[in-house]
Amino acid sequence: MIKDSDKQKFDLVIVWKLDRFARNRYDSARYKNTLKKNNVKVVSATETISQNAEGILLESMLEGYAEYYSVELSEKVTRGMTENALKCKFNGGTGPIGYVINKDQMFEVDPVKAPYVVQAFEAYANGKTIKEIVEMLNAKGVTTSHGTKITINIVTDMLKNRRYIGEYKFRDIVNPKGIPRIVPQALFDKVQRERAKNKRATARHKAEDDYLLTTKLFCGKCGVYMTGESGTARNGTVHRYYKCNNAKYKHTCDKKRLKKNGLKTLLLSTPVR
Fold it and tell me: Among the four residues 1, 2, 154, 236, which has the most C-beta atoms within 10 Å?
């Protein structure tokens, strides 16, 4: 609206009260000044404000009260949420899978979904991909607190959520034993190590293809990880390779790409000694 006011398509802005226009005096003054330059007036439908000097004073008082009310309300909400946090109560938002919120707004372990959370952590720790975990949870009928299907983003957030080891956090308030634990500490730590390792191996899983040697295959020239990549030929054939990360991103290594299928054949044909 402010931007469109310079097109001279309207000359009046009517609000129910001035606090509907802005609850910040700086914003109110700035936007009204812009509108005034474009010959547009702001009029309150329920507040009688004259156009003389007294009207200017009354308008500034109303705007000051609106800002005061907004700030005071924010402080009350923050104070209430802080008091809840000190008691480790649920402060709103989407509840994590595996917990239920009781009538006192406290976290309780969901006996139905909590075991699936542990299964998801164990699966990732044992080498399953996030996509595979999503498929597993959806196949078992696990849903979010809103009843929707599990997605990659939900599982990604789940695997790093410290609530599952009992940690309650709200802003600067942290209670390491504030809520019931679902995931054992050792399992959670193992998953974090796997996440860190897989994050460094940026191309472990490409499209529908699984590059199982990523994080296990190293460049013979510079020693860094070799990760999966693919390319499509003009005839539509998809070729898959392992490539040195330094050659791919930093161009500091001249190691050539290794064909994925050729490497697999080589490994299978190599006798075990």
Answer: 154
